[in-house]
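Milestone 3.1: sequence recovery, worked example.
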């Protein structure tokens, strides 16, 4: 359903850009591939277009030595050289549902663009949630929520750049918005 070549092209473009960036720059962090992402982007590149659902569930990927020992090195080798010199490995201990969104996104965009769009959507949804909390429950609830959210080291250092972990926050924020938007679903009375 989704041709593989544009996905490979976008990942190769990201790989080439990564080599041109200073290691500790924001731009470098946007182009880096993290542990689980390295596996998922390889899966996105190797899925069988004739049987995409089965291929996603089988989760076949490739490794240079021992599977899961150095997946980021495996990823870089795979993007630069393809499957040459690699052996097949299975990563089917659990299925990553975000391949459903990652693969089509990689068809159109490289990793830095996907991260920026994801982060922008996240900030917009979080802003809407904060406004809803403030309207429904006041500043006394919204401000501690905001402060606690931004004081998590994980948010500041990792969330904007993680394609696998931020999905949990998307689900939590969307669920909270649904709860706050429905009169029938309120767990406590609305503030006057």
């Amino acid at each position: 359903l989704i041709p593989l070549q544009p996905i490979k092209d976008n990942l190769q473009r990201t790989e080439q850009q990564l080599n041109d960036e200073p290691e500790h720059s924001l731009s470098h962090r946007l182009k880096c591939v993290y542990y689980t992402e390295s596996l998922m982007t390889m899966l996105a590149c190797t899925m069988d277009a004739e049987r995409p659902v089965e291929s996603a569930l089988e989760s076949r990927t490739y490794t240079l030595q021992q599977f899961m020992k150095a997946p980021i090195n495996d990823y870089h080798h795979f993007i630069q050289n393809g499957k040459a010199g690699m052996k097949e490995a299975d990563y089917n201990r659990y299925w990553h549902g975000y391949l459903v969104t990652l693969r089509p996104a990689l068809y159109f965009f490289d990793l830095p663009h996907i991260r920026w769009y994801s982060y922008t959507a996240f900030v917009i949804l979080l802003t809407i949630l904060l406004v809803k909390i403030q309207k429904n429950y006041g500043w006394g609830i919204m401000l501690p929520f905001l402060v606690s959210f931004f004081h998590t080291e994980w948010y500041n250092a990792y969330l904007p750049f993680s394609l696998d972990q931020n999905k949990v926050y998307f689900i939590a924020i969307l669920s909270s918005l649904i709860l706050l938007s429905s009169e029938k679903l309120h767990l406590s009375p609305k503030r006057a």
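The radius of gyration is 20 Å. The mean pLDDT is 81.
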